[in-house]
Structures are given as structure tokens and as C-alpha cells.
Design goal:
The protein has 295 residues and is mainly alpha-helical. It has two domains: 4-199, Four Helix Bundle (Hemerythrin (Met), subunit A) (Up-down Bundle), CATH 1.20.120.1630; 202-292, no CATH class. It is 57% helix and 5% strand. It is built from eleven helices and four strands; from the N terminus they run H-H-H-E-H-H-E-H-H-H-H-E-H-E-H. It has helices at residues 4-25, 29-32, 36-52, 71-93, 101-125, 153-168, 172-180, 182-196, 202-213, 257-273, 284-292, and strands spanning 64-65, 134-135, 228-232, 279-283. It has a two-stranded antiparallel sheet with strand order 1-2. The protein has a two-stranded antiparallel ribbon with strand order 3-4. Helix 1 runs antiparallel to helix 3, helix 5 (101-125) packs antiparallel against helix 6 (153-168) and helix 9 (202-213) crosses helix 11 (284-292). The longest helix is centred in the middle third of the chain and has 25 residues, at 101-125. The protein is elongated and about 50 Å long. 24% of the residues are buried.
Amino acid sequence: MMMTSVRVTLVLGGTAAYLGLAILGWGGWPAFFSHPARVALAVVLAVLAGVSLCADSNLSPGLREDRGNRWVIVALALLGLLDASLPAYTDRKAFWTIDGETMRWLGVVLFATDGALRLWPVFVLGPRFSGLVAIQPGHTLVTCGGYGVIRDPSYLGLLGTTRGWGIAFRAGVGVLLTALMLPPLLARIRAEERLLRPDITADSRALLAMRAHAPAHPGLLEHDRCRVYDAPMLPGRRTSGLKKPRTHAPQRRDRGPQASRYHKGIRMANSAVSPKNSTLYISSEECYSLYNQRF
């Protein structure tokens, strides 16, 4: 785990550099803070930086790391420096700006909300959250909460904060820089999935293969931890010793064509995996996550 003093230095130094470049881009301290929207933007940035200090993240290579993906960190850092200065500079020069003072406040709101989305996974994962593409000690696949709905909430928040920062300066170049972040982020996501693939159990792969025959219908699944869903018997997994669940998922009556394809896929998996229609009880979170993650 990264030492606290090092993490504090990186967070405070990075925040000061980010805000300092924006102030230089707008022509100095008095000019930058002459507008209340920019003052609010600086306050939000300081608050997000302070909150991030309470998170237990690290830059450890952990148990296993994909070192070939470190170039993404350099690419995102360079794009971040451009995003800090160019929107402020184009706003001062009135170059490629989006008219309307409302856009400034919209950018502040987007920067705040997406910044919270960016930090939320850091608190959920704790010491397992690393700035590197690495498997940390105590690694587990998180499928509850927002991770059951959003595949990569941290990266989505990063894109949102970049967009919000640019809109706060009414800068069209900020939207362009957000788009330029997509290729390195997608490369990092693919690297993470390759690193995680060996940890995915055979059961998970079987369910994912089933999804190819029957696209998942999120409306048929719930996030209730106290309920369970029937699933076909999967190879390499025993059902002996499993207790009968107390509650079962309610049957949905409003099933459309998607539901028909879903149950057709279940029958196909049953006939392909086991001659008997055995039943395996898995949690709704596990079922939802396995059907909606794409590897």
C-alpha cells in the first residue's frame, strides 16, 4: 500500500498543478476568480481532492500486474494537463466557445456529480483499488451496488469530470479532449479484463456462454440479496450441501420476446450441460453480474 505521505503529496501536488494551469490559461489569479462559476469550480476541485485523501487507494503492483499497460497512465496524464489549461485559455480568447452563462454552471454541476462518481469506486474497493492494472491481495469480483448497473463507474466518472471541466469554461476543445481519452481508457479496460480472465470461474464462463444464446433482460432480474434464482446445473460445481432457500424470486408476468429468448437459452444450456434439469441456486447479484458483464 502506498505510504500516506506519498499519496497526500501526489493528490495535493496534482490538484495544485491542475488548478494552476487553469489560472495561467485565464491570465492570472484575479481574472480567473472574477467569475463566481469559476470560483465554484475551484471549490469543487478542492473538495474532491480532500475527499480523495480519505480513500484507501494505492499504486502497488500487487500480486500480478500488466506492466505493458502503463503507457495509458502517461497518455491520460498528458491529456489531463491539456484539459487543465486549454479550456481556460480558449475561454479567455473567446475561441470555439459555447455561448451562454448557463453552460458554465452546468459544467460545474457535471464536474461535481461525475467527480463523486469517479471517487465512489475508490471507497467501495478500498485497498484493492490501484492506479495500475494489477490484482491486489484479497481480490474479489464486486457485483453489488452500482457495479451491478455500471460496468466501469470510475472511468465513466473520469470522462464526466473532463467533460464538465471543459463545459465550465464553455470550451468546445474540452469536449474534444474528452473524446481523445476514450482510446486509452478502452485499452486499459481490455487490459483489466485480460488480467481478470484467469480468475473467472468455469461457472461464470458457462453463464457468459449462455448469454450468447439468450441476451440478458435486466428487467427479469432483481438486486435483492435475500432472494435467489434458479439456474441450470453447471459443470464442475456440486449442489450437495446447499440449503433450500427460504424465498424465491417472484415470477414476472410482463415477459416479452426478450424473456422468451432468455428461457430458450436456459433450456439450451440445460440440454448441453446436463441431461437432467438440475437446479443450482445462485444469488441475484451474481446472476445479474454474470449476465451483464462482457469479456
